[in-house]
Structures are given as C-alpha cells and as structure tokens.
Target: Phage integrase
Amino acid sequence: MLYESQSARMIEREMSAHLDGAQMKKLHECLVRVMGEPVSEPPSNETLLKNFLSAKAVEGCSPRTIQYYTVTLEHFIESITSPLHVVDTAEVRGYLASRAAAGKVTNVTLDNIRRIISSFFSWLEEEEVIYKSPVKRIKKIRSVAAVKPVITDEEMEVIRDSCGSLRDRAIIDLLASTGMRVGELVRLGREDIDFESRECIVHGKGNKQRKVYFDAKTKIHLQSYLKQRSDDSPSLFVSLKAPYKPLNINGVELRLREIGRQSLGIRLHPHKFRRTMATRAIDKGMPIEQVQVLLGHSKIDTTLCYAMVDQQNVKRSHCKYIS
Model:
C-alpha cells in the first residue's frame, strides 16, 4: 500500500505501532479517500511468495527447508480470501483454527505452520509491503512434550547385525557415533574424513562447518567399505550398483526404514541416532555446552529438546546431593 507522496506513507508508518490490522486497513481507506492519493498496488500473492522463497534461498536455507516453506505457504495463500497486504490477525487465526479443527495435524505441526507464516509476514514487513505483521499477536501454540524413545544397546547390535552391506554398516556406525544430521551425512566427501584423528568435517545448516568425532569401530567399518569400492566418486556414500551415484537423504531414510522393519519391526529413521547420541552423552556426564557443539546447534535450548535425561540418573543425583 504505497503512496505517490511521502505524507500519507509517513502517517501510516507512525500509526502502525498503535493500530491493529483492521484499523490500519480503515486508515488506509480514509487516506486514499480524503487525500486522493494514488496508490501503487503491491505484487500479487504468488509473486510475493516467489520473492520470499528466493530470499530464503539466498540466506542459505536448504532445498528441503525451501520445499517445506513452499508447501505450507501455498496452502495458506490458497485458503485465504484476501491479498496478503490486507490480511489481518483474525484471518490468520481463522486459518490456524481451521487446520486444528480438521484434526490432521498435531500441535507441534500447527506451531510450525504458525512460525512459517510469521516468518513470511515479517519479511513482508521488512520489505515494506505491509506496515505490521498480523502474526505478531498470535502466541506460540503449546504442545505436550512427548518423551521419544532412544535406541537401546541391544537394539543397536541387532540393527548392526542386520546390515546387508559394508556401506549400510558404515552409515549406521557413523550416525550413531557422531550424531550428525542425515543431510550432513550425504554431503560428506572422502576428503572430509581424517582417519588418523578419527574426525571429519561436516557441512551443517547455513553452510556452517564443524568437526565431529567417531570411534574406532566406525573407523574400521568406514575403511573396509571404502577399500572394497571400485568407483572413483569423491562422495563418501554412493549407491551399491553402477553408476554409483551419491546417496541422497531419501535413499538413506528408505534404507534405514527397511533395516528397522526387518530387524526389529520398528520405525527407524536417521534422527533417532542423533537423539540417542545426545541422550547418552548427557547421561554419561558430558557438559551440555559440548553436546551443543557436537550437534551443531546455535541455541542450547534446542540441544535440551533433543536429549532425554535418564530418570534413574536424576534419582541417583538426588540421593548423592540432597538426600
């Protein structure tokens, strides 16, 4: 809602801190009517979404994150009846309420939707397409923090024994030993591995690099896997058959799902190894700040969400320090 003259724009900018979305719309209509100011309409909803996604890509968001943003925001835009520059808080709340009423999403997913919509409108505000984000008044959606199980020692051995190839065994050992993300795993190259120091460089979110460390068992299985390969691909993990293409996230997830179903009848996914590593590290006394570094988290609160503290350890500490 941009004016040819600066006066009307300044009025709206000054009043945006004191008025809600509906009141801002009324003010805008009044200024156009009284001052007779011509208005340069903002781009279409589809164009604004395209520009937002381009901005996120430039900021370094992964293709998977961009895809999640795309699906979420396309559904939102298709569901609302207003152009984005006049959407108010009530309309966003109504959309979230309709998603909740449909009963197909958890509160965790619903809050993720709220967060993505909020990010979109914050960007529109920064780009001066709107004067105030309508999502600012919508609070975080609470959810019950479910305790997610980790992989037990016995389950880990059964999983390892069920691997049908040296590659699969090396993947599982590396995930379990380092706690790296599956996206980081598939981006690894041979040159990223330092066998002498038993460490490797991973390329995390936002193209940030960090070191992670693996145990002797992982070293042996990685070396055995690389030794039996006949291709010259620089990627650390490739398909088992020619033309030996680098593995992608979906390929790793599918293989782990098959191994989990065949070995234990469970749903096995890469993230479970990450959560297991974090939980064990904390249970054994590793400072949470060091676990944060290993996992590549920018905020320690995220690390605490990943780690499930063993209640028996809490009881032993209570007996030691309090009882």
